[in-house]
TrEMBL record:
It comes from Rhizobium rosettiformans. Keywords: DNA-binding, Transcription, Transcription regulation. Coiled coil: none annotated. The keyword Metal-binding does not apply. This is Transcriptional regulator.
């Protein structure tokens, strides 16, 4: 049996083009589970662009977050594969955080979401 994709002269559509509404809803639910939490998006925006920040730098950059909450959010993002934790074995201990390649790929999506939120029409202009 021959493969038909070798005979056609246009690229095959990705499997994502055939998502059902239920598949799409499940995917969005999974994404929201990964990004849920008051501080995760704030942490991500500080780490975008290849920034490598020490724990104390993140703590200073986000004044409203407690140390316990910052640790918890970073650990969750590390276990989800978004953030990478770099431990330098020295005295005093030094721990740095940066985004993984997959985490950095979130940047355009969150940028688009931010642009969408900024361009919200006034209440008077709503149809």
């Amino acid at each position: 049996m021959t493969r038909t994709d070798k005979k056609v002269r246009y690229p095959l559509k990705s499997k994502d083009a055939f998502l059902t509404p239920a598949d799409g809803a499940q995917g969005v639910e999974n994404v929201l589970r990964i990004l849920e939490g008051r501080w995760k998006l704030v942490i991500l925006f500080h780490l975008f662009g290849g920034a490598v920040l020490r724990f104390s730098e993140l703590e200073r950059a986000i004044p409203g977050i407690s140390q316990k909450m910052l640790i918890q959010q970073l650990r969750q993002m590390e276990s989800d594969g978004i953030v990478r934790r770099i431990v330098h074995h020295q005295v005093p201990p030094k721990v740095e955080y940066c985004l993984t390649e997959w985490g950095q790929a979130l940047c355009p999506a969150l940028d688009a979401l931010l642009t969408w939120a900024i361009n919200k029409p006034d209440a008077d202009q709503a149809p």
